[in-house]
């Protein structure tokens, strides 16, 4: 029997700390459900003391997730631990993750505390967390630049205080694989009570080494890896879940442990996180990039056709890539639609939600004969996005785009039940349309991101547009999909504007927040 490698996903906490990746409570719940289907062991849902929005998001995730442990982050402060304990009250299985910095530079400059004091805070925090749950994780922040002797002392003390998982974070992505692996082996060997806790790692990707460092730690005894979908996270991101999981699975010959992840759910999670956060996945990204399994060179194609293992070390279908399967079409009925959506893991809250989604499906099927799973996923995502306080609605859009002429767009919107029409010209059809909308809604927001992705293959594919707007420090992502990318762009812009107008559910990080 191989050891279990615990997969701790922090997309909803550390991933969200990526500037612009802020998610609403509903979005977090949707991602948490996808992570549960992926069979992630622990879902770090947020940092409850950071803001009321973060507290409510952790609470909401704790309420719906049954199979995975739901975790809340807390500084080593009573008020943070109490907030985390409170947010996790409804969870089937909960964990409190508390941390304090242990590197000389962090202790002196940031905390302005003596090492002895830091140990006192850590021990006190773990004991307090144990009053809420017997599943307590402790992290010495910036462990990658901490002194090993000090790490041994503080970790021994927190195990005695009741910590069950010791997470070693390379907070600033400074470590290199051999050295980081050796640190993990040394800690396990030197700490007298190390057998009473699970060693975990949490690596940042500043030098592009987060996955390599995590795997080196696993080879040296770590049995939990903290990671995020698509490697989302602060600065250069965190270790990517899909890469860690597939490395351990593909190289069974070198790893003495295995994960419980259902790898066929990887791609769905990747697409969901990408569309919600507006962070596209680069085409050559391992496992989930559009080209990850594409064999372009003739010599490769020839080899793969003769025997796929000549060039393929993994099977695309094992991580959720299926040849775009036509699942539904124009003549599919409501029951077929409902059952396919249910198979994809979505649930309708009410009959009217189902009816509305089915009406959208019919509209799409009129424009596109073959409806793939990816189309259905986008349709549901879009519905979820729009559900949020839609006080501006697109009624009509007419665009004139002709060689040698300046493109022009006329837009009609319903704004708070009143129809308004505006016209603008621009550098292209999309530019003219967004300018016409902006003329009518006058947000004065800054456009931070405009991206278009094709959801499936073919020129009749839906284009999925993400638009990120920033206004007075608040950042929102809007999503729109349509077989016409000008309309998709208009929908995405309106969606973002509606979000700017909706009550501020902000959590860190937003521009100007500490
Ligand atoms: O990078 C880090 O140190 C963290 C800790 C809170 C674990 O995210
Ligand atoms: Zn981190």
What does this 3D model show about the protein?
Mn(2+) binds at residues 14, 202, 204, 238. It catalyses: 3-methyl-2-oxobutanoate + acetyl-CoA + H2O = (2S)-2-isopropylmalate + CoA + H(+). Keywords: Acyltransferase, Amino-acid biosynthesis, Branched-chain amino acid biosynthesis, Cytoplasm, Leucine biosynthesis, Manganese, Metal-binding, Transferase. Pfam families: HCS_D2, HMGL-like, LeuA_dimer. This is 2-isopropylmalate synthase. The protein is globular and about 75 Å long. The chain has helices at 25-37, 52-64, 78-87, 104-111, 115-130, 148-161, 177-190, 210-219, 241-250, 266-277, 298-306, 334-343, 351-367, 373-386, 429-441, 485-501; strands at residues 3-4, 6-9, 42-46, 69-75, 94-101, 136-141, 165-170, 198-203, 224-227, 257-258, 326-329, 370-372, 392-400, 408-415, 418-425, 446-454, 463-471, 474-482. It has 2 domains: 3-277, Aldolase class I (TIM Barrel), CATH 3.20.20.70; 389-501, Alpha-isopropylmalate synthase LeuA, regulatory domain (Double Stranded RNA Binding Domain, 2-Layer Sandwich). The model is unreliable at 506-514 (pLDDT under 50). Helix 1 (25-37) runs parallel beside helix 2. The strands form 5 sheets. The protein has an 8-stranded parallel barrel with strand order 2-3-4-5-6-7-8-9, surrounded by 8 helices. Strands 13-14-15 form a 3-stranded antiparallel beta sheet. It has a 3-stranded antiparallel beta sheet with strand order 16-17-18. A hairpin with an 8-residue loop joins strand 16 and strand 17 (463-471). It is α/β, with parallel strands linked by helices. The chain is built from 16 helices and 18 strands. The longest helix has 17 residues, at 351-367. The protein is 39% helix and 21% strand. The protein starts with a strand and ends in a 13-residue tail after the last helix. The chain binds 3-methyl-2-oxobutanoic acid and zinc ion. Zinc ion binds next to loops.
